[in-house]
Design a protein that fits this description.
Chain lengths: 171, 198
């Protein structure tokens, strides 16, 4: 199975090119035309990303995340999320690289097949970095009023944490 | 909303640094975040170029239209008013496909393309449209059929069965998606019914 998944990306790339050739498309020219838009949008994304990265690194380095985790401890007991997985749930909506490091730590300390390891795996498989998505998606088109996006997306994240803790015990 | 969240992130960090004596770490963090953001941006720019190029070929070859047709019954539920043959629906279906296959790197650039199309249809250019809100929530719930990265890491740490979390992960994503979208729709209805001062 793990062999198959590493073929997904190469297979898609090849399939697109072969399909393009069949339809008589000048594939390289076409690729260049499409790719040329990329850098322009990246430049537009720098300012919002700069703001987000500043906020997230400050939260991580100042020890503020530990404070938040401690405050949430009673809530975690109520929902069945183990205390050692709780930091991951605090980090996962705000920092993708941070939650990957945290996930790795849980795998190392408890093992991937332990209850903690399984809950963490399910959480990592079913959530995305909400603040990053909101910043990048809205930033790229210049939307300033995100309306109810953040509360709705955070509710989705919380649902995923609680359900992950429940399903890990069942399956 | 974002303004207040961002401000509280920074203020809360400074207060906790004051109490836990991490002021010097915090100073380094402030400076290093500037260059971190630039390298993040360059990496993102690279993947946008890559997928922009591949998608241009797929679009011209009619592949994106075919994928969109396949996903349209599902997309119709979330975006009932959208034209399923249009460019927006096609861009959204490419982003959903990347998410389903667990290709996180591809999902963001393809999602940005979809946002551009959604913005073209958006009557007010500074305020997120309903479809945009639903689309961003859809992405933050991340429905992966194959959790590629997670399974690879589980295997690295010696899991006996790296993929056995898949059913649990589908249920968890499905619940998150349902709650997120329902909440978004309720919030949208509320804000349209009662005009809050902004």
């Amino acid at each position: 199975m793990e062999k198959i998944t590493s073929y997904i990306l190469p297979a898609i790339t090849a399939a697109i090119i072969i399909f393009g050739l069949f339809k008589g498309i000048k594939v390289f020219d076409c690729f260049v035309a499409g790719a040329s838009k990329g850098l322009k949008s990246a430049v537009k994304l720098l300012p919002p990303l700069m703001g987000l990265v500043l906020g997230v690194t400050m939260l991580r380095q100042s020890g503020a995340l530990e404070v938040i985790t401690k405050m949430l401890m009673p809530v975690a007991k109520f929902t069945g999320i183990p205390a050692d997985v709780l930091p991951l749930t605090v980090l996962s909506p705000i920092s993708g690289s941070g939650s990957l490091t945290m996930f790795e730590q849980i795998l190392k300390n408890f093992g991937p097949d332990s209850l903690e390891g399984r809950i963490a795996s399910i959480i990592m498989g079913s959530t995305e970095t909400t603040f990053y998505a909101v910043t990048v998606y809205y930033g790229s088109v210049g939307i300033k009023k995100s309306g109810c996006t953040v509360p709705a997306a955070l509710l989705a994240d919380m649902t995923s944490f609680v359900v992950s803790a429940m399903t890990a015990a069942i399956f | 909303m974002i303004n207040y969240i961002w401000a509280s992130m920074i203020i809360f960090s400074v207060i906790s640094a004051f109490f836990s004596g991490t002021a010097s770490e915090l100073s380094t963090a402030i400076i290093s975040s500037a260059s971190d953001a630039v390298s993040l941006c360059i990496r993102l720019g690279g993947t946008i170029c890559l997928w922009g190029g591949l998608m241009e070929i797929a679009e011209q070859a009619g592949l994106t239209g075919a994928v969109c047709k396949l996903l349209s019954p599902f997309l119709k539920i979330i975006f009932p008013k959208m034209d399923m043959k249009g460019q927006t629906a096609r861009a959204i279906s490419m982003n959903v496909t990347a998410n389903l296959l667990g290709l996180g790197n591809a999902a963001t650039p393809l999602g940005l393309e979809a946002m551009r199309r959604l913005q073209d249809e958006n009557p007010s250019k500074e305020k997120a449209s309903r479809d945009m809100i639903k689309f961003v929530v859809l992405n933050s719930a991340a429905f992966h059929l194959i959790p590629t990265t997670v399974a690879a890491m589980r295997q690295d740490y010696g899991s006996k069965n790296p993929f056995d979390i898949m059913p649990a992960s589908w249920i968890s994503s499905a619940c998150a998606l349902t709650v997120g979208l329902t909440a978004a729709i309720i919030f949208i209805k509320l804000s349209e019914g009662v005009k809050w001062k902004k």
